[in-house]
UniProtKB/TrEMBL annotation:
Keywords: Cell membrane, Membrane, Transmembrane, Transmembrane helix, Transport
InterPro entries: MetI-like, MetI-like_sf
Membrane-crossing segments per the record: 13-36, 76-97, 109-129, 141-161, 182-204, 253-274
Gene name of this polypeptide: dasC_5
Highest rank taxon of the organism: Bacteria
PANTHER family the record matches: ABC TRANSPORTER PERMEASE PROTEIN MG189-RELATED-RELATED (PTHR43744), POLYGALACTURONAN_RHAMNOGALACTURONAN TRANSPORT SYSTEM PERMEASE PROTEIN YTCP (PTHR43744:SF9)
Family (UniProt): Belongs to the binding-protein-dependent transport system permease family.
Major localization class: membrane
Membrane topology: Multi-pass membrane protein
Subcellular locations according to the entry: Cell membrane
Organism listed in the record: Paenibacillus allorhizoplanae
Record's keyword annotation contains Nucleotide-binding: no
Name recorded for this polypeptide: Diacetylchitobiose uptake system permease protein DasC
């Protein structure tokens, strides 16, 4: 057990106090959103800021799920997140593995082209024309296929593969394993930290994305969760409080907050389980470029 001096103990208390204050500053806005979503409008008007409600009502959540198409949007977003992330990781690994081999012909040229895309893009209009020519407009696959590989994530995984001892693959080849067998049975099990990190990067990106759906989709039944959330916030904000009161609906502020909660909580639940892989995965994959 380490014996701390009086000064070190005081400094430790100060550090913990500052960390607690910062944690509360980050947590309070979300607590306010959750509280308003389950608080009757009269209490919100009376108190102004509500953190711990005196009474609870879930009419705002009922309004969100029944009247605003959140259920269908959840299906599209789950399809995009699960299928998209799986394909993202698959194609990123298949591209990063050969690029991690220095004996690959033209390796430097491929890497230059890949890094170039991190700084420059074709622009929105050429991209739209390309996607239209591929027949992907108004299809759920338009949310996945154009974003199959992130150059940044590819560089991270490539760097991780380069750090693995070459003797591991050599021993696999001596035993008769092919390149794909060595990748599947040897390399990938050793790469779980970086794969978990990249998977979360891709999943959060899919879950939070909305701009591509606005540009490439016209069917309301194909809109992902974030677009529906955006529409809820804009539509309710444009309605007057008097019109909502006359229609007998729940408070517009509670509906807005409930929509924010139902679109945020799922990714918050997954995030803590993957967070432990962040530092290890990103650092191990970024030592070499």
């Amino acid at each position: 057990m380490i014996n701390l001096t009086v000064g070190e103990k005081i400094w430790q208390v100060v550090v913990y106090f500052i960390l607690i204050i910062l944690a509360l500053l980050c947590l309070l806005p979300f607590l306010y959103v959750v509280a308003v979503s389950v608080t009757p409008e009269s209490e919100v008007v009376r108190k102004g800021i509500v953190i711990i409600p005196e009474s609870f009502t879930f009419l705002a959540y009922k309004e969100v799920f029944i009247s605003h198409g959140i259920g269908q949007a959840y299906k599209i977003t789950l399809f995009r997140t699960i299928v998209g992330t799986a394909l993202n990781v698959l194609f990123t690994v298949l591209a990063a593995y050969p690029l991690s081999k220095k004996y690959l012909p033209g390796r430097s040229t491929f890497l230059i082209f890949i890094v170039f895309t991190m700084m420059f893009s074709g622009g929105l209009i050429p991209t739209y024309l390309l996607i239209r020519s591929l027949g992907l407009l108004n299809s759920p696959w338009v949310l996945i296929i154009p974003h199959l590989i992130s150059a940044f994530n590819l560089v991270i995984i490539k760097g991780f593969f380069e750090q693995l001892p070459a003797e591991i693959e050599e021993s696999a080849r001596v035993d008769g394993a092919s390149e794909l067998q060595a990748l599947w049975r040897i390399i990938l099990p050793l790469s779980m930290p970086v794969l978990a990190t990249i998977s979360l990067f891709y999943a959060v990106g899919h879950w939070n994305s909305y701009f591509d759906a606005i540009v490439y989709l016209n069917d309301a039944n194909l809109m992902p969760l974030q677009v529906v959330l955006r529409n809820i916030l804009l539509n309710i904000a444009s309605e007057s409080a008097e019109s909502m009161a006359n229609s007998g609906t729940v408070s517009k502020f509670a509906v807005q907050m409930a929509a924010v909660v139902v679109t945020t909580v799922p990714i918050l639940i997954v995030y803590p389980f993957m967070q432990k892989h962040f530092t290890k995965g990103v650092l191990m994959g970024s030592i070499k470029g």
